[in-house]
Amino acid sequence: MTESLAGPPRASGVATYDYSLFGDVEVAPFSKIRKAIAERTSASWSSVPQVTQYDMIDITALEKRRAALSAEKKTKLTLLPLIMKASVEALKDHPPLNASLDPSGDALILKKYYNIGFAVDTPIGLLVPVVHNADRLDLTGLSSWLLELAEKARSGRLAFADAEGGSFTVTSLGRLGGYGFSPIVNAPEVAVLGIGRAEDQAVVRNGEIVVRLMLPVSLTYDHRVVDGAQGGRFLETFQDRLSDLAKEDTVEV
Ligand code: CAO
């Protein structure tokens, strides 16, 4: 189908033109959910000054522990519950990342609850269910909630209540993640943690080149609230809490 797309500049402010002047085009509908994603991401992008910090975390020991826990519990434990647990523990030490800026600009609302949103890739587009009170859940509980909410999101059964009240978001592209990406803050939250694809890499330890499983992470935050030093300290704590989880008997499963 050839159809003119000429019209006035869209809300984005980017001028458009008649693309069909240059070849055949097809006009596909832009779904309701894509419009909602467009609105949320555009609002965040245009109103939040955001910075992304990257790191590589050695998860060799954590991966062994994950495999052992999965075998012990006779259930598949993915990396995400461990990431979520470590995020909650790191947020407790860095309250401004679990906050929202008051619209007046005069106050920061520090949340005493840990409601962690997580991005789910669904047939209709990106949805972000929220694990409420994630700090009260052990790894098994986190894993069950993640599975249940991801399934609800994918099957179109996610209720409004399942996706509201988030205080921090984790977005894991897992195996699809590539080397890294810059997530957009899920405003009015202040920070979002991106997880890339873990891969064996040659790294230097004690002067020797060894193979370790390295996880790329990216933390994006609202620079009005969080400075680079605090972002760096958060990532350090997050890494420490992940190391804690790799040790036996350090956490309730
Ligand atoms: N690196 C390498 N492998 C990873 C990984 C990582 N960072 N994270 C997960 N994996 C592995 C898992 O261990 C699992 O491997 P096995 O089958 O061998 O055990 C496999 O990838 C599949 O994991 P999963 O996707 O089923 O489970 P999960 O808990 O890691 O993730 C969910 C759940 C809902 C986050 C995920 O399915 C999903 O939808 N991700 C996409 C989110 C997204 O679109 N983000 C972008 C938002 S911005 O546009």
List keywords for this structure.
Chloramphenicol Acetyltransferase, two-stranded antiparallel sheet, binds oxidized coenzyme A, 23% strand, seven-stranded mixed sheet, 11 strands
How would you describe this structure to a colleague?
The protein is an alpha+beta fold and 253 residues long. The chain has a single domain, classed as 2-Layer Sandwich (Chloramphenicol Acetyltransferase). 32% of the residues lie in helices and 23% in strands. It is built from 5 helices and 11 strands, in the order αβααββββββαββββα. The strands form 3 sheets. Strands 1, 4, 7, 8, 9, 10 and 11 form a 7-stranded mixed sheet that branches. Strands 2-3 form a two-stranded antiparallel ribbon. A hairpin with a 2-residue loop joins β10 and β11. α2 crosses α5. The chain is globular and about 60 Å long. Oxidized coenzyme A binds next to α3, β5, α4 and β8.
Short structural description:
The chain has 253 residues and is of the alpha+beta class. It has five helices and eleven strands.
The whole-angstrom Rg is 20 Å
Question: What portion of residues is helical?
Answer: 25-40%
CATH superfamily: Chloramphenicol acetyltransferase-like domain
Please outline the major beta sheet: 7 strands, mixed
Could you tell me the strand content as a percent range? 15-25%
The kinds of small molecule bound in this structure are: oxidized coenzyme A
- Straight-line distance between termini: 56 Å
What class, by secondary structure content? alpha+beta
What is the total tally of β strands? 11
**Overall morphology:** globular
Number of domain modules? 1
Order of helices and strands: HEHHEEEEEEHEEEEH
Low-confidence stretches: 1-9
Question: What is the CATH fold-level name?
Answer: Chloramphenicol Acetyltransferase
CATH architecture: 2-Layer Sandwich
**Broad CATH class:** Alpha Beta
* Number of H- or I-type helical stretches: 5
Output mean pLDDT. 93
